[in-house]
Amino acid sequence: MTEKIKTVLIVTISFVVACFLLAGLNAITAPIVSAAASSQEQADYIGVASGNSLGLKEAVEGVASVNYRLEMKDVNGKHVGWVLDLTGSGFGGPMRIVASYDLSGAIIAGTILENTETPGIGTRSQEPGYFDMFTGTGGQVPVPVSAARLSAGHVQTMSGATITFTGIARALAAGSDYIKSLGGTR
Question: Where would I find the FMN-binding domain in this sequence (predicted)?
Answer without folding.
Answer: 90-179
